[in-house]
């Protein structure tokens, strides 16, 4: 087909979509008591994925997502549910750098009540 353009979706965008869809459909047990859902956490933090994998500069959209997530914490269950969602989502992203993602809040001028690593026990974060 001469002259036709083939639309190619970059692998990163496909991976991001898969992670978003998986998290939206997979509520965590901690989420049952929390008012924060994995879908919300995913929506807020999806703009942070590129920094978590590739580094560079943290986008303003990522920082806004971090701030929106922090503003949504009302209880310890909210914090624990968000921790679990971030941990589950990060585990599904090839090449994620946990030290990098744990530094995002500081780079955005805010804080995070937990550090997420594969070994983090989100049920014990305060």
* CATH fold description of the domain at 38-124: Hydrophobic Seed Protein
Whole-Å distance between the termini? 59 Å
Portion in beta strands: under 5%
Structural class comes to: mainly alpha
CATH class of the domain at 38-124: Mainly Alpha
- H-E string: HHHHHH
DSSP summary: helix tally: 6
CATH H-level superfamily title of the domain at 38-124: Plant lipid-transfer and hydrophobic proteins
Q: What gyration radius follows from the Cα positions, in whole Å? A: 16 Å
Number of strands: 0
State the helical fraction.
Answer: 40-55%
Shape verdict: globular
The overall pLDDT average reads 83
Low-confidence stretches: 1-9, 12-32
In the CATH hierarchy, the architecture of the domain at 38-124 is Orthogonal Bundle
Largest beta-sheet details: none
Secondary structure layout:
Layout: H1 11-25, H2 38-45, H3 49-54, H4 60-72, H5 76-91, H6 98-107
């Amino acid at each position: 087909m001469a002259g036709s353009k083939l639309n190619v979706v970059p692998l990163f965008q496909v991976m991001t979509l898969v992670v978003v869809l998986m998290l939206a459909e997979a509520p965590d047990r901690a989420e049952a008591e929390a008012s924060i859902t994995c879908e919300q956490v995913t929506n807020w933090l999806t703009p942070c994925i590129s920094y978590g994998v590739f580094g560079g500069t943290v986008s303003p959209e990522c920082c806004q997502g971090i701030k929106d997530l922090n503003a949504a914490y009302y209880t310890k269950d909210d914090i624990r549910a968000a921790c679990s969602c971030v941990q589950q989502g990060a585990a599904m992203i090839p090449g994620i750098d946990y030290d990098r993602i744990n530094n995002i809040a500081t780079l955005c001028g805010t804080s995070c009540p937990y550090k997420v690593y594969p070994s983090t026990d989100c049920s014990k974060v305060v």
